[in-house]
């Protein structure tokens, strides 16, 4: 049964790290499946990758905050 | 009664007073006068912008043609609803029409069409009213979170003073109604923290919030980010409840979606979802991000600061989560056909969050004993008052913080400054502010299509085009439906959806081209030539220029069949 306790800062941090990683993988996979109009990384993909990286870093920064409510 | 020096400046000194809201009530006399003057100036600037907004809105209510391209098609969507028809149709057959927006805004406008007929002002009034409700909700959110009525008022007015709100508020467009539902949803959901002790069925804010989220999504698809923000906030407070809420919301939205899709034989899905997957230009998105940040620098900086503060030092509020999602959603402005309106939600969220940040800042710098509830607040700095309740002199830091608030709102009002520059009152104001503009309008954003009031020449130009449409034999192919309503002609084609659907491989123009080749249209009215390239080629081959008429700064090209 999923908990109904408020999320902690650490849990939110891990969620954001996971979301950032997932976004980066999907973004990179776009080329594998032939989406996009550029051969390599297009400008939109580069920006999306940067955003994913920022999300991961943001998530990591929350991990030391421990069990305080998010 | 031994009042501290300067108390007569705030004769209505009370728990609801402006002086207390802004932390001025115990300032030395001179500082208090200065602070009140600054506050009055900020309020005057924002109220002045509001009056310009009302003037612009009234001018548009009197203009019966499209002011922003596509308004007439929104009117036609509403008319179709009045007639009991869905606007989601196969646009490959005559009259080559479909709508790419959900129906709620049009349904809200239906009663006005019932009473007054197909008038352009009906939807504009709904949009304008939605912007006022949104500003009220922004103010209400700030008031409830901080207890500071003055900052709440300034926050609501700041939303209305935004260039983007000004441009699109009084248009026959669904966007502002979506923002209204989004804001109402988040303000309702934010009550969740104060309703924690109640059983879920009794939590009005929770249920109202979910209903408003559903309404926002069925007004415009862009509301998805706010739906995710609302559910994200609930997730922070309790994952199980949030997932159940999300599932319930999805189920209701899904049933509605399937019902409309069945009723329209699948054209709802094609028009609403598939036609809205457009080409993406990252440079366009970056440019609009820069523009929004430069115009809303003060509230954006304060909102980001508050977001960081809540993230690392307290708990994330519904408004902080909303602001983060809304700002991220601005990336969608890179879509073909997207524009500044996509940032109006971000503006509303920034207004609430910055207002809460400033009110909290003032509360923390208010001398103890001057709390709104009459008790010192937790975390509030001590000092500034003797045991007998007399001020001992305030640290400069407190005075500076009290002065900074009206200065920040003044700075924000200056960044979004827009006003007309002609006429005795506006002319005087423009000269005093040192601004000039083309077409009698100055906008800190630079050149804008939206903002100038339609002139008498624009009205006359519109009626000339409508008269040409009225006198043409057969149907008229027009990029703006407003002329056709005035001319009493049926609405045929909706250029922009045709173009994006053609680009997505969802629109075969064969039948439309066949009619063009037969010269079945008595007249063609171009503004931006948004039709798919094969349609434009067919028109070029079969129609010739008749005349050109300028309206609202745009050149309308009127074509007639070649002999």
Strand content of chain B: 5-15%
Q: How many separate helices of chain A?
A: 2
Order of helices and strands of chain A: HH
Low-confidence stretches of chain B: 1-16, 371-392
Largest interface, Cβ cutoff 8 Å: A-B, 19 and 21 residues
What quaternary form is this?
A: heterodimer
Distance between the termini of chain B: 94 Å
Percent of residues in beta strands of chain A: under 5%
Structure description:
The complex is a heterodimer of chains A (about 70) and B (about 575). Chain A has one domain. Chain A is about 65% helix and about 0% strand. Chain A is mainly alpha-helical. Chain A starts with 8 loop residues before the first helix and ends in an 8-residue tail after the last helix. In chain A, α1 runs antiparallel to α2. Chain A is built from 2 helices and no strands. The mean pLDDT of chain A is about 85. Chain B has about 575 residues and is mainly alpha-helical. Chain B folds into 3 domains: about 160 residues, no CATH class; about 280 residues, no CATH class; about 40 residues, no CATH class. In chain B, the strands form 2 sheets. Chain B has a 4-stranded mixed β-sheet with strand order 3-4-6-5. In chain B, α9 runs antiparallel to α10. Chain B is globular and about 85 Å long. The N terminus of chain B is likely disordered. At the A-B interface, α2 of A face α10, α11 and α13 of B.
Characteristic key phrases:
heterodimer; A: 70 residues; mainly alpha; 63% helix; 0% strand; elongated; B: 563 residues; 4-stranded mixed beta sheet; two-stranded antiparallel ribbon; globular
Question: Layout of helices and strands, plus pairs?
Answer:
The complex is a heterodimer of chains A (70) and B (563).
Chain A: H1 9-32, H2 43-62
Helix pairs in contact in A: 1-2
Chain B: H1 18-21, H2 29-61, H3 71-82, H4 104-116, H5 120-146, H6 149-161, H7 163-168, H8 175-189, H9 204-217, H10 224-237, H11 239-263, H12 267-272, H13 282-295, H14 297-312, H15 318-329, H16 344-364, H17 396-415, E1 418-420, H18 424-433, E2 441-443, H19 456-471, E3 476-478, H20 482-487, H21 495-503, H22 510-517, E4 523-526, H23 533-542, E5 543-551, E6 554-561
Parallel strand pairs in B: 3-4
Antiparallel strand pairs in B: 1-2, 4-6, 5-6
Helix pairs in contact in B: 2-6, 2-17, 3-4, 5-6, 5-8, 5-16, 6-16, 8-9, 8-10, 8-16, 9-10, 10-11, 10-15, 14-15, 14-16, 15-16, 22-23
